[in-house]
Write a structure and sequence with these properties.
The complex is a heterodimer of chains A (488) and B (847). Chain A is of the alpha/beta class and 488 residues long. Chain A contains 13 helices and 17 strands. The radius of gyration of chain A is 24 Å and the shape is globular. Chain B is mainly α and 847 residues long. In chain B, a hairpin with a 7-residue loop joins strand 3 (496-499) and strand 4. The longest helix of chain B has 23 residues, at 458-480.
């Protein structure tokens, strides 16, 4: 600890700063600013560009280097798919099946349900090679075979959370508790939105028991316009798009102008940023009325496209959401996040992995493969980044009894894959040990992953910050390192 | 160290002075550096491996926050100087086998600095504030700010002492209109009428505000407003949840909550009723209904659902909800293993579970433990039942001419050709009759023939049909006017076992009902260890949590922000109170007042802190955290609806009763509901279409968009704080929904009537004031005038469009009527201007 640092600590004490700083989280966070911790890369001040709302396009805080990716489709596989049964082939697990793992591998590791005595389980599915690069995929993951050469497989990503909600928050917001902006919100904050008539960040949910909360796509303390806007499943993805009977567009425009003028008076008097957000959202709502019905109308797609994705007209499904994602991306939406639940396969008295995974993959992976192929054929994959990730992985050890009810517990090491803009396609990065416990090569944590994703968007994760109560917050909290080996 | 300890000195901590109790517990806010900075680092980084669940290297760090001998002894080890200090050694080491944490993460520089500083100061510890009983803090010396009178409510003295310390000043008082609107919205959930505003502004008496607060507290609308808070905690809904999500008629529970708040049932008694109303001696029916608090758990009525599995889920939800509602504790984590981050063991969890285990209700295999409560018109029911009875009697003697018709029928058949007789009577009876001669029919045969005749005689059949119709009508009416609130019932004592890894199929040690040990407050052993004992334990005056948790949530609802900003979590992971001594003083006063909720609300509502202006212009960034500025936020779902309804003049003041079905898009009810659950939304008409938000039918799998859009929850689980996230969906709802149109129609009609004959500007100002509680600026009026004129022109050019707009609003016209002599184009133009006013930030915000 250097002397000036020490001195500021003393000052913090004598200034009765603890009381002043209030709540615990704020207190602990404000500490860093009180202490004037030296951060070499300071934030640029948060821009509040006036006039931004007049043009629909949002300028964003600005990039730090030329971006490779311009759009993000984030496949948030809620519940945590089993990397060992899909992507990370472990022949040694077969050999040691039924044995307890070496003590040094489980010492100090926390699991949600199983204890250190749980035994190893091989994947019940065989793996085969796909594509020019010979990517290993299990029988369950075979639907991804046709796009194997487009994927960048990243093994050995780790998180420090072992329960769903905190881990999902960590993955999406960089912090295990609520209150931080999501990856999507940060991305739109950084780059702005290209869609004049649609939200910059759209979210869709599928899968019963989706363990996500609105926070995984929230704006937290960023201005509300960066919040993910949810599309509902069903015939009307966005409710109330139609003006009431007898109300013309020009009448609506006049009423909106009046609302805006009067709200601006309120804003001038009260200076509440929430009012400014409301003003913008009314304008966006007006423009969405014009464009959104067409954007979400899947009947405009050809029968061949519908079939490729596995979309049945009028039926709500993950496949339909994948197709909607492409339509939205085409129309300038910056980030589409698909939260897709039901991957949490513990076995025992809970959902069985052995029985559940093939069905889940059959529902989920063909539409994903179709999406990647579709993006590619339209030339969109060059600057669209697709990320597939659960909030954590699943254990090499069994949960429940061997047989049809077997499952796996939560595990802090997992596999993420990416495709598209700027990533090293057809490449496998990182390696976990022979039993799949932890990375032995190329390991990274969630913050590193986030830093890398932001980097692809031309954003420096240490400089993309927003000041709150005296501290500059960022997606990667206080760590994160861009993984250059992932870049193509 | 002294310098840090003195942090709280500005809030006078004086034992044996003032009016407080003479026996004072220790200062819960001692060692703020340890509590605010050190313990969070340890909890976040270390306690996972060195906590209640696991003690790697025989080290358990969460005891530092327990303030016991074990904690002090451990702290003394950390205070060691130099190389001997293992904590410093471990966090500074560069040896990967030595450095902590060992779970692959690393401390950042701030965290390490905090721990080093703490060690340097001698590693002081204290019992975690919310594990220590609340303490009576004497009011600090009043501080008068330059342009402000000294306040009399201790709240203001506590708040100002902290402001002074930070060189901040409180905001100026909000205007009288603003204050009246604020307090009306907070206490009764609807804004004041222009007449109420005028009356208040004209009232120059010094106690005008006090009388206003008392008037609002006495209104039945008070209970309707505050019930929402409790119904979120109680996860109250009108359906069973799970996939099939059938309706349940449990609204008497909701009405009991409304009544309890209106009657100001003391919160300790309220707690007993909610948790154990069924166990109270000489309990009333209302108290039994109140025990439905924990029957709001989900029920799975799908075939094949296993009772033990779903009952276990319900019992766990009861434990988790109880812990969240009264203890602000995240004890749910201890289901599967000892809590990794808080001092709760798995045994603690199942000791709480044991309180609920003997309950007899079913969670999967059918309905259970329901009351039957008739709420219809008793006269009508009696009439319908009497009519059914009359018809039954008319049928019994089978009509006056039954005998005559019977004899004629028998005689005709006796003499009829064989085949006709057989066709009517069947073989056996026909043969018997054929053997008889006239007038000699035996008694046995007569009975058989009479029975047959009753089946074929047309007149008799008509009487029977009449009877069936009357019975059906009476039954339909009875079913529609009978609620079945689900209540708690205690079965025989049940043995509870710890569930290994949280699985009810994998049982371990036996446990007895008991509260968590970490609170260091034993349950009353003179009582039977049942739910009533648990309730009594929760309302012990010196309980470290209950009074603080309630005070904090009430404060949050009034000031827009809690003293503890994590109102759902007072544990080591939660936020540290911004004004601990104030929280404690209010909590001690609250318990001493006899847990008087209205008194608590009253004193906060009458404080100067609450009365401050809410403009954020030119206030310090910390102003909100220090309560140096009044509350400002978008209203919650129910208050948005109720405010719009009140402005529209359509609001029904009907209190209680079955839930209602305001309109929503049909597409929300298409194609994803199981049979058995209802698939059609039975849209309400007339008065029930315009009831307050808390009466809207809560379907768990598909919440009404008028609630959902504004952040209401689906009530599957206990909710402490709703999302207030902004969204363009809010704009679309307020602009285009059927409800928005009807509300606007109501406001248009109200405006044209209330300012009859006045010019446009007067009318516009009147409507603006109805919505916002204030007079519009001249520029606002001219903007509205411009809009009105432009829309008039458009409608004038397209008369059919005006007709369409008004036709779509017909359900509102059914209730509000239509002003005489106003042409369609004029009325429709006013409807759109009303729509503007109902969309304003000033209308749907608390400010």
């Amino acid at each position: 600890m250097n002397d000036s640092f020490k001195a500021s600590l003393e000052r913090a004490s004598t200034r009765r700063a603890w009381l002043r700083q209030g709540g615990l989280s704020a207190g602990a966070l404000a500490l860093s600013s009180l202490l004037a911790v030296d951060r070499t890369a300071r934030a640029q001040p948060a821009p509040e560009k006036s006039g931004r709302e007049q043009s629909g396009r949002e300028q964003g805080a600005g990039t730090h280097h030329p971006p490779r990716a311009k759009r993000l489709i984030f496949l948030n596989m809620s519940g945590a798919p089993s990397q060992l049964d899909l992507f990370d082939e472990k022949p040694q697990l077969k050999k040691h099946e039924g044995l307890q793992p070496p003590a040094n591998l489980v010492a100090g590791v926390r699991f949600a349900f199983i204890g250190p005595e749980a035994k190893l389980m091989a994947s019940p599915w065989s793996f085969a090679r796909y594509g020019r690069t010979g990517l290993a995929l299990s029988e369950c993951a075979a639907p991804l075979g046709p796009v194997a050469d487009d994927l960048l497989m990243v093994h050995g990503v780790s998180t420090d959370q072992f329960n769903h909600v905190p881990a999902a928050l960590k993955l999406t917001t960089g912090f295990s508790r609520t209150g931080r902006p999501s990856l999507g919100a940060w991305t739109v904050y950084g780059l702005g939105s290209e869609a004049e008539n649609l939200p910059g960040f759209v979210v869709m949910n599928s899968g019963e028991g989706n363990r996500t909360t609105a926070d995984v796509s929230g704006a937290a303390f960023l201005p509300g316009r960066y919040q993910g806007v949810e599309l509902l499943p069903g015939r009307e993805p966005i409710l109330f798009l139609q003006d009431p009977p007898g109300v013309s567009r020009s009448m609506r425009a006049k009423t909106l102008q009046a609302i805006r003028r009067l709200d601006e008076e309120t804003l001038a008097a009260d200076a509440d940023p929430a009012t400014a957000t409301r003003i913008e959202q009314y304008e966006l709502a007006f423009r969405m009325q014009a464009e959104a019905p067409e954007a979400v109308d899947l009947t405009r797609e050809s029968a061949a496209t519908l079939e490729a994705y596995g979309v049945k007209p009028g039926e709500r499904s993950f496949a339909a959401n994948c197709l909607l994602a492409r339509r939205l991306i085409e129309r300038g939406v910056r980030v589409v996040q698909l939260n897709h639940g039901e991957w949490d396969m513990h076995g025992g008295t809970m959902v069985s992995l052995v029985q559940g995974l093939p069905e889940k993959c059959q529902e989920s992976l063909p539409p994903i493969a179709a999406l990647i192929q579709d993006l590619k054929s339209r030339g969109l994959l060059d600057d669209t980044l697709v990320v597939f990730a659960g909030e954590f992985g699943r254990t090499p050890m069994i949960q429940g009894e061997p047989g049809p009810d077997a499952g796996r517990d939560h595990h802090r090491t997992f596999t993420v894959w990416m495709a598209g803009a700027g990533v090293k396609a057809g490449h496998v990065h990182g390696r976990t040990d022979d039993l799949g416990f932890a990375a032995v090569e190329g390991g990274m944590d969630v913050h590193d992953l986030q830093a890398t994703i932001l980097h692809l968007f031309g954003l420096d994760h240490e400089r993309l910050t927003y000041p709150v109560a005296g501290r500059d917050f960022r997606l990667t909290d206080v760590s994160g390192k861009v993984q250059r080996e992932l870049l193509g | 160290m002294a310098s840090i300890a003195s942090c709280t000195s500005l809030i006078a901590v004086v034992s044996g002075q003032g009016t407080g109790p003479s026996k004072q517990p220790a200062d819960p806010y001692a060692e703020p550096f340890f509590q605010q900075a050190v313990m969070p680092v340890l909890a976040r980084r270390c306690v996972g491996c060195h906590g209640a669940d696991r003690q790697s290297g025989d080290l358990r760090l969460d005891v530092l926050a327990l303030g016991n001998d074990e904690g002090r002894e451990l702290a003394s080890r950390f205070a060691a100087r130099g190389e001997a200090n293992e904590l410093l050694h471990r966090i500074r080491s560069t040896d990967p086998d030595v450095v902590m944490p060992q779970d692959g993460t690393t401390l950042d520089e701030t965290e390490r600095a905090v721990l080093e500083h703490w060690v340097e100061q001698g590693a002081p510890t204290a019992r975690w504030w919310s594990l220590a009983p609340p303490r009576f803090y004497v009011t600090p010396a009043p501080i008068a700010f330059a342009d402000r009178p000294a306040a009399s409510e201790p709240i203001d003295d506590f708040v100002r002492a902290a402001l002074r310390e930070s060189n901040l000043v409180p905001a100026k008082r909000a205007s009288d209109e603003r204050w009246l609107r604020r307090v009306s919205l907070d206490l009764i959930g609807v804004p004041p009428t222009p007449e109420e505003i005028d009356r208040f502004l004209a009232d120059r008496s010094p106690d005008a505000r006090e009388r206003t607060v008392d008037r609002l507290l006495a209104s039945t609308a008070f209970g309707e407003r505050w019930a929402t808070w409790w119904l979120d905690l109680a996860r109250y809904a009108d359906t069973h949840g799970y996939e099939s999500d059938e309706p349940r008629s449990v609204w008497p529970y909701r009405d009991r909550v409304v009544d309890s708040f209106n009657q100001n049932v003391p919160f300790d008694q309220f707690t007993r009723e909610q948790l154990a109303g069924d166990l109270l001696p000489e309990r009333s029916q209302e108290q039994l209904i109140a025990s439905g608090f924990h029957r709001n758990t989900l029920v799975n009525l799908e075939g094949g659902a296993k009772e033990d599995e779903y009952k276990d889920a319900a019992l766990k939800d009861r434990v988790d909800t109880t812990a969240t509602v009264w203890l602000a504790a995240t004890i749910a984590c201890a289901q599967c293993h000892d809590h990794k981050l808080e001092p709760f063991t798995q045994a603690d969890y199942y000791q709480l579970y044991a309180y609920f285990q003997p309950t007899t209700d079913k969670a999967a295999t059918g309905r259970s433990d329901e009351l039957e409560i008739f709420f219809g018109d008793p006269e009508r029911r009696r009439r319908l039942e009497a009519e059914a009875e009359r018809r039954r009697e008319a049928l019994a003697p089978r009509g006056a001419d039954f005998a005559r018709r019977f004899e004629a029928w028998v005689e005709r058949l006796r003499t009829a050709p064989d085949d006709e007789r057989v066709a009517t009577l069947g073989d056996s009876l026909a043969q018997s009759l054929a053997k008889e001669t006239a007038g000699t029919i035996s008694a046995g045969l007569r009975v058989r023939l009479e029975r047959k005749f009753a089946e074929v005689d047309e007149k008799n059949l008509a009487l029977k049909a009449d009877l069936d119709a009357a019975v059906a009508e009476a039954e339909t009416y009875r079913a529609a006017t009978t609620a079945h609130p689900m209540v708690m019932r205690e079965g025989p004592p049940a043995l509870t076992q710890v569930q290994r890894r949280g699985s009810f199929l994998d049982l371990g040690d036996y446990v007895m009902p008991a509260p968590p040990a970490a609170f260091d407050l034993p349950a009353n052993e003179a009582m039977e260890a049942n739910r009533l004992q648990l309730a009594e334990w929760l309302v012990e005056p010196e309980h470290p949590r209950t009074s603080r948790v309630v005070v904090n949530r009430v404060w949050q609802r009034l000031l827009g922000r809690g003293i503890v900003t994590s109102p759902e979590d007072f544990g080591l992971q939660g936020a540290y109170p911004s004004h601990g001594p104030l929280l404690d003083r209010l909590s001690v006063d609250f318990a001493q007042s006899g847990w008087d909720l209205k008194a608590l609300i009253r004193r906060i509502a009458l404080s100067e802190t609450y009365a401050q202006g809410s403009s954020r212009a030119a206030v310090a960034p910390e102003a909100e955290r220090f309560f140096a500025v009044g509350p400002r936020y978008r209203l919650d779902a129910e208050r948005v609806r109720d405010t719009l309804l009140a402005a529209s003049g359509l609001l029904s003041h009907k209190l209680g009763g079955p839930p209602v079905y305001p309109p929503q898009p049909a597409s929300l009810f298409e194609g994803h509901f199981f049979e058995g659950g209802f698939t059609v939304w039975p849209e309400s008409r007339g008065e029930d279409r315009f009831r307050r938000g808390l009466y809207t039918f809560v379907k768990r799998t598909r919440l009404h968009p008028g609630l959902q859009t504004f952040g209401a929850t689906d009530r599957r689980l206990c909710t402490v704080t709703r999302s207030s996230a902004p969204s363009p969906a809010i704009a679309l709802y307020l602009l285009n929904s059927q409800e928005a149109l009807e509300f606007a129609y109501g406001l248009a009609v109200r405006t044209l009537r209330e300012a009859e004959g006045a010019d446009d500007a007067t009318r516009l100002a009147c409507a603006y004031r109805i919505c916002t509680g204030e007079r519009p600026s001249p520029s606002a009026v001219s903007q509205l005038q411009e809009t009105l004129n432009a829309i008039r022109q458009e409608y004038a050019a397209d008369a059919a469009a005006a007709g369409e707009t008004l036709a779509a609003a017909q359900p509102a016209a059914d209730v509000a009527g239509r002003p005489d002599g106003v042409p369609n184009e004029e009325l429709a133009a006013w409807v759109l201007v009303a729509n503007v006013l109902l969309n304003l930030d000033a209308t749907i915000s608390q400010r």
